[in-house]
Amino acid sequence: MRTILEMTLTSCIAICFCMAALEDHRTCLVRRYWWWLSGGASTILLILKRGILPAVILELVFFGVIQFLFFSRAYGKADCHAFFCSAIVLAAHGGGLREFLWQELLTFMLLGMVQLIKRNVNAKGNLKRPVPLIPYVLPVFFLMLLFMRFKITFLA
């Protein structure tokens, strides 16, 4: 049974993610306080559910480093924050580096499919006009949580 604190933290995280996705969709800019709130609530949820396990922290640090050092050039920092905050929540629910990377892959697969349908992809495979990414991160994040809840694994 979930505690009131877990439900409150999960609600806070969901609201922050939805507001960030809405802001990204409307303005292509996301205020940092959504990530501070979401990241803080996610970290508390992680500590509450799994404690401070060195292996989990190491995977999160590694994922954060590749996000912010390498991928922030490919897409924006807000998108890196979205992937990192969602990774913390996935870790709280028992996920690891494999789940973090699967979420990223599935997000880009969804983005690619939708943009192909909208004919927003040029001959080189790049987007003709940029689109906000967080609205694609959000549904895949919830899908990953659902997969983890029902113990559906990818290439175990």
Shape: globular
Give the tally of structural domains: 1
Beta-strand residue percentage: under 5%
Biggest sheet descriptor: none
Indicate the percent of residues in helices: over 70%
Q: Let me know the number of strands.
A: 0
Order of helices and strands: HHHHHH
The mean pLDDT is 94
Number of helices: 6
Low-confidence stretches: none
Q: Report how far the terminal alpha carbons are from each other.
A: 28 Å
C-alpha-based Rg, rounded: 16 Å
Q: Helix/strand/pairing class, anyone?
A: mainly alpha
Describe this structure in words.
The chain is mainly alpha-helical and 156 residues long. It has one domain (4-149). It contains 6 helices and no strands. The chain has helices spanning 4-27, 32-50, 54-74, 77-92, 97-117, 134-149. Helix 1 runs antiparallel to helix 6, helix 2 packs parallel to helix 4 (77-92) and helix 4 (77-92) packs across helix 5 (97-117). It is globular and about 50 Å long. The chain starts with a helix and ends in a 7-residue tail after the last helix.
